[in-house]
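User: Show me a protein chain along with its predicted structure.
Assistant: Here is one chain, sequence first, then structure tokens.
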Amino acid sequence: MSKRARCSRCDRALVACFCHTIKPLNNELSIVILQHTSEVKHAKGTAKIAELSLSQCQIIVGEDFSNDPLFEQTINNKKSLLLYPNDTAMSPEQLVENISQDESTNLADYQLIVLDGSWKKAYKIFCLNPILSTLPCIGISSENESNYRIRKSSRSDSLSTIEAIHSLLSTVEKTNFDTLLASFDAMVEFQLNAMPKDVQARY
């Protein structure tokens, strides 16, 4: 049986390709996505939208990055912030304020580390890579509501990777990054329309 033809750019089946929705965007804050291996071929994954859309975005795939030279080089390349909601996480507004008060630095000196996977898989990446726990954490507003209807989460405040990136970039750069969500919404609608009617009713 022959494999379904795939897009060489987004690596989706041609029928599910979302490349026509992608709009190039310039971002000052670099994005580094640590993607769990289970997400690479996931039809509902959103990290690829960020990689294809943003001028400063890369994906590193794995779980344990302790012997990954690319990860080591990247983590030391700029001032790294981990997108991780905990009690000590600064807000995007606080980051902007900190930079405005320090004339020796700007947003381009920073990079945002994003863990791409389910909460369980993201936590596993966090635990397997102790260096991540040494990074300053940054969070996003819990008031954000997700449109990630095609994927269930145990947390009510869960956002997809692309929604989280969109929220943070929009706040710190004060620029319109809404085409990220346009690509995301197109992907969601395609996945929903491809489901049987009785399955659609659950979402």
